[in-house]
């Protein structure tokens, strides 16, 4: 099964890193969903929720972000945010 390698990074360090089936984020012109094989993308993010669906079938991880940008290339997704609120799912604590 194809998967994404995801890094979510804030100004104060790494928020989460791992393999995922899907990533969704609040792009400047509307929400965007990323699956494996997505075309290259560079997008500014507006305030909203970044969501990651891990490949292990665990709970979807979700963080509220205040802005930043997202880069997608060759199934590598990098989300760089200005600030991030704590993950809203129990499965994400500790990351």
Automatic annotation (TrEMBL):
Superkingdom as given in the UniProt entry: Bacteria
Membrane topology, as annotated: Peripheral membrane protein
Intracellular or extracellular location(s): Cell membrane
Primary location: membrane
Keyword S-adenosyl-L-methionine attributed: no
InterPro entries membership: ATP_synth_F1_dsu/esu, ATP_synth_F1_dsu/esu_N, ATPsynth_dsu/esu_N
Residues of the ATP synthase F1 complex delta/epsilon subunit N-terminal domain: 4-83
Keywords assigned by UniProt, alphabetized: ATP synthesis, Cell membrane, CF(1), Hydrogen ion transport, Ion transport, Membrane, Transport
SUPFAM superfamilies: Epsilon subunit of F1F0-ATP synthase N-terminal domain
Tagged with keyword Aminoacyl-tRNA synthetase: no
TM ranges: none
Function: Produces ATP from ADP in the presence of a proton gradient across the membrane.
HAMAP family cross-referenced by the UniProt entry: ATP_synth_epsil_bac
Subunit comment: F-type ATPases have 2 components, CF(1) - the catalytic core - and CF(0) - the membrane proton channel. CF(1) has five subunits: alpha(3), beta(3), gamma(1), delta(1), epsilon(1). CF(0) has three main subunits: a, b and c.
Similarity-based family: Belongs to the ATPase epsilon chain family.
Record-given protein name: ATP synthase epsilon chain
Gene designation per UniProt: atpC
